[in-house]
Amino acid sequence: MRLIFRLSYLLFFSFFFLNVSAQEPIEIKKKEMANISSIREAGFIPIMKELQISQEMTIIDGEKNSEIITLDKMKGLNIVNFWASWCGPCIEEISELNKFQEMILTKNLEVQLLGINIFDKKKEAVNFYLKYKPFFKILFDNKNTISVKFSIMGVPETYFVKDNKILFKYMGKINQDILERGINESLKY
Amino acid sequence: MKALNIRVFLFLLFLILPLQYSQSEDTIYEISNELMCPVCQGQTVAESNSQLAISMKEVIKIKRAEGKSKEEILEYFVDQYGDTILAKPPLKGFGLILWITPPLILVISILFWILRIRRNRKDAG
């Protein structure tokens, strides 16, 4: 009886350790590890992934025949905020994002703030735009697939993308403090 | 004769077209049924009507139209959301432990009870 128990323990643990050791080694440099923990401490979720998109988006500007652009490589620091018209926190954060856009313009910061509407119909996005009048560029996802390309879990979510690499994201209602913290973190890369 | 040929061709076309359509729809369903909806509790993408699941189905449809295989599409989603997106754990790493542990426990329990019954019989004898 004991022998069976001992053998089963041995089998299970050897199997477990063999599996763990067979996994790919994590090759993250010490500096990157320190940066990742700093991102977490600042309240963000680290992603560190190259962005691969080439997506047709409509600029929402309240006009009937809005311009269609292709969103592909994002140069410099981009703050991408995803929202939907039916989402309460998205409505609440719009004033904060507007204030932040004002700050970008007055301080002449090299940051682009972008709002992308997802999980909505275009008409709803336009109505939202006309009602809340965001100062920053608003895009509408024509194909309804960009959420997967950014690995979105819900709205609102704000991504910090630098030179086409998604550094980290913030889930939930954002404010100026968090945005400034995000910029400071992004400067480390 | 020519008219008959055209009729036969059209008949065959009508037979094949819905078959192809259903095959493609089946594959989309099959793939979405192997992916967990990241924002739902215990629902696959096929079962869910959440906005994200709808977007995921749209991505599957586009990738199928691009000629991507089921494996390639599943790999893409794993790359985007990690291993937890798969409805069935992968047969490697920690996933393998999840597959092996239940039958292993069953085998050990059976052995345990067999030995216990044998010992009881021996003691009674």
Any overview of this molecule?
The complex is a heterodimer of chains A (189) and B (125). Chain A is an alpha+beta fold. Chain A is built from six helices and eight strands. Chain A has an eight-stranded mixed β-sheet with strand order 1-8-7-4-5-6-2-3. In chain A, a hairpin with an 8-residue loop joins strand 2 (55-59) and strand 3 (68-71). The mean pLDDT of chain A is 87. By secondary structure, chain B is an all-alpha fold. In chain B, 73% of the residues lie in helices and 0% in strands. Chain B is built from four helices and no strands. The relative contact order of chain B is 0.08. Chains A and B meet through helix 1 and helix 5 of A and helix 2, helix 3 and helix 4 of B.
Rg over alpha carbons of chain B: 25 Å
How far the N terminus sits from the C terminus of chain B, by CA atoms, comes to 91 Å
* Overall geometry of chain B: elongated
Structural class of chain B: mainly alpha
How far apart, in Å, are the first and last alpha carbons of chain A? Answer: 59 Å
How many individual domains of chain A? Answer: 1
The overall average pLDDT of chain B, rounded, is 86
Salient structural properties:
heterodimer; A: 189 residues; alpha+beta; Glutaredoxin; eight-stranded mixed sheet; 6 helices; elongated; B: 125 residues; mainly alpha; Helicase, Ruva Protein, domain 3; 2 domains; 4 helices
SSE layout and pairing:
The complex is a heterodimer of chains A (189) and B (125).
Chain A: H1 2-22, H2 30-41, E1 45-50, E2 55-59, E3 68-71, E4 77-83, H3 88-107, E5 111-117, H4 122-132, E6 137-141, H5 146-149, E7 157-162, E8 165-171, H6 176-186
Parallel strand pairs in A: 4-5, 5-6
Antiparallel strand pairs in A: 1-8, 2-3, 2-6, 4-7, 7-8
Chain B: H1 2-33, H2 51-65, H3 70-81, H4 93-124
Helix pairs in contact in B: 1-2
